[in-house]
Amino acid sequence: MNKISTSAAALAAVGLLATPASAQELDAQSGYEAQANDITVTGTMPGDLSELPEGPEFEGVISARKDDRIQVTGMDGTRTVITISPATEIRSSGGFLGLDKDALTEADLLNGLPVDVETVQWADRGLIATKVSVKSRDLKTARMIHAGTDQRFAANEAATEALRGRVANIDEYNIKGTTNVYFDTARYNLSQEARYELCRTAQQAQATDNALLLVVGYTDSVGDYEYNQELSEKRATRVVNFLQQECGWKPYRMMVPTGMAEADPAADNSTEQGKAQNRRVAVNILVSKSVDGMASGL
After folding, report:
1. pTM of the predicted model over 0.90
2. Residue 212 and residue 202: Cα distance in Å, rounded?
């Protein structure tokens, strides 16, 4: 299955920064025909999705809802309308490795909720979700925000926006530590060793006052630039998601991740050992020089 990795920074609080689409936009994107105030569909929704051709997989946040359709928006702004059918499996997982899974309903698919959606192609009528996966902690946050009870959201949003402009001024930060995690050729899934190292790094950063994390993805020299750029971004995004969703790192303490393709190699790309060292994501623990200077003077 082809996976369109559009999540990046996407816990519920950050996800709500996506601009919601109007009902008309949803109609135009999904192939539905609007007549007056009604929505009609050409053809009957299939009850069995197993016979339909496989579609792409999406990571992103729900940025709009209308009837049986959701719009998933990625970090790059790409918006995709997906239909939810009675046969769609909606699940949450609260365990570290997907344990404690619970079945959810369509009503749980709230705006701002980070999701991973598997789809099938419904002829020329668009995509139908076969499975929608969410994290239990994300669902809890989305419900709180939806109910208007999470007073921290405004502060988190302001902090996140403030951090967006700081990546260009990286020389204003002291690097307190760097952890590299490594990937197989053309892959961006995390090994068990990488998962352990990432949560250990998050713990180290938690013990560092005023720490931020900057995540940078890299590749080896195999493949063309466009491919490696996309792959490096996917690796960085996967690490960011894991740090936030599994290691408890707050999104407003995460600087915008970036992909550097094969730039700045850590080793010689002419050897297999060197290439293995270059297929990496670097997680940097940063502290503002001004804040760090104040702390050291106390």
Report:
1. no
2. 10
